Amino acid sequence: MTIRASRFAPACLASLLAVCIFGSAQADEVQVAVAANFTAPIQAIAADFEKDTGHKLVAAYGATGQFYSQIKNGAPFEVFLSADDTTPQKLESEGEAVKGSRFTYAIGTLALWSAKDGYVDAKGKVLTDNQYQHLSIANPKAAPYGLAATQVLAKLGLTDKVKAKIVEGQSITQAYQFVSTGNAELGFVALSQIYKDGKVSSGSAWIVPAEMHEPIKQDAVILNKGKDNPAAKALVDYLKAPKAAAVIKSYGYQL
Question: Where does molybdate bind (predicted)?
Answer without folding.
Answer: 64, 172
